[in-house]
Amino acid sequence: MVFQYAVVNWAWSSTHHHARSLRFIDIKRCDKPIDKKRLRGKSVFLSSVTDCYNPFEEKYGNTRKILEQLVSIECELNISTKSHLIVRDLDLLKGCKNLIVSISVNTLDEQFKSDMDQASSIGKRLETLETLHENGIYTVLFMSPIFPGVTDYKKIIEKTRRYVDEYWFENLNLRGSYKQDILDYIKSACPQLAELYDDIYVDIVFVNVFDRLGLEAPADSFAVSFADAGFPLWHANQVAKYNIKQGIMPPMSGHWLNNPHADDIDYQIEADFAGLMSPGMPNTASEISDKIGHIFTYGDG
Questions:
Q1: Residue 259 · residue 240 · CB < 8 Å
Q2: Are 166 and 140 in contact, with CB atoms under 8 Å apart?
Q3: Residue of 201, 173, 175, 176 lying closest to 187 (CA atoms)
Q4: Rounded CA gap, 284 and 234, in Å?
Q5: Which helix (H) or strand (E) holds 145?
Q6: Kind and range of the H or E element at 293?
Q7: What distance in Å separates the CA atoms of residue 219 and residue 48, rounded to the nearest whole number?
Q8: Would the pTM count as exceeding 0.90?
Q9: How crowded is residue 8: how many other Cβ atoms within 10 Å of its Cβ?
């Protein structure tokens, strides 16, 4: 089983391909030369959504054709990839005056890597970083996405620090259709981490509402985001979700008249985010908990 983490849904809709097939490729052909004046002094990134060194690059060479033009342009060039194929273009890369190459590595476990993507092996990626570094190219190890309990950042840094100039880090953003796939995978392949992921990715729903709407966000906004999140729930959480979907909003969604699990400990398990957001401010943490806790449970603590 291979998961396509960070595949962008709009790419499917804009190309009219079926979103769940994951079995298509559109080859873009463009013989028009790059406008050198337009890019001079600018930043160019290859590439943020897809991998510019995907397996088809070996056959079609589109990235190499672009590099052949970029090499003479005074611009800041960033290349991000998971593929060792980039070493094929060392002759051009060494000619780029302001170049950074980042290679994605979030594990040293080849099996976990293979479960997540079909790109180059971890061994090949590390070998690529070392080769680039030895050829005078500024190297970045992009630790993305960081899987809690799986990604051992200390071991990765210790193994690679000799030939990596800089480290970038990105957390695991679970959204869209692959969110449930990842959570199901963790429960199957790493059952000892299932509770950790439930804690993190239930709590993050509430934190995201604060980030989007501010500290005064109404209880209903938390309830709707919680009900729409998509992950499996049990007991008070599960009934609360059903209530919200039926139009019963907090605090009645957690009231004992509507929720037979109103006295369960669901929110006690999830409440740590309120404390983390309010260090040394118990009254503030209590206010947050009073608002959000009544989505699924009842009482005053």
A1: yes
A2: yes
A3: 201
A4: 28
A5: strand 138-146
A6: helix 282-293
A7: 36
A8: no
A9: 12
Residue tagged 């002759």 (tokens): 91
In the structure encoding, which two tokens stand for residue 104, read together? 């994605």
Task: Read off the tokens for 215.
Answer: 């500290």
Q: Measured between alpha carbons, how far is 101 from 53 in angstroms, rounded to an integer? A: 12
DSSP letters, 239-257, are HHHHHHHTT--TTGGGSTT
pLDDT digits (tens, 9 = 90+) for 263-291: 988 888 788 889 888 999 999 999 999 99
Collect the ranges in the chain with pLDDT lower than 70: 1-24, 175-177, 230-232, 300-301
The structure tokens listed for 14 are: 């804009």
User: Which of 263-272's residues contact partners 24+ apart within 8 Å by CB, and which partners?
Assistant: 263/297, 263/298, 263/299, 264/235, 264/236, 264/297, 266/235, 266/236, 266/237, 266/296, 266/297, 267/236, 267/292, 267/293, 267/296, 267/297, 269/199, 270/199, 270/202, 270/203, 272/199, 272/203
Amino acid letter at 126? L
Phi, psi of 138 (to 5 degrees): -70, 120
Q: How many CB atoms lie within 10 A of CB 177?
A: 12
Peptide bond between residue 286 and the one before it cis (omega within 30 degrees of 0): no
Q: What is the DSSP letter of 167?
A: E
The Cα–Cα gap between 228 and 230 comes to 6
Could you count the other beta carbons within 10 Å of the beta carbon of residue 113? 21
- In this predicted model, what pLDDT tens digit does every residue of 94-133 receive, in sequence order? 999 899 999 999 999 999 999 999 999 999 999 999 999 9
Q: What is the largest CA-CA distance in the chain?
A: 72
How far apart (Å, rounded) are the C-alpha atoms in residues 63 and 71?
A: 12
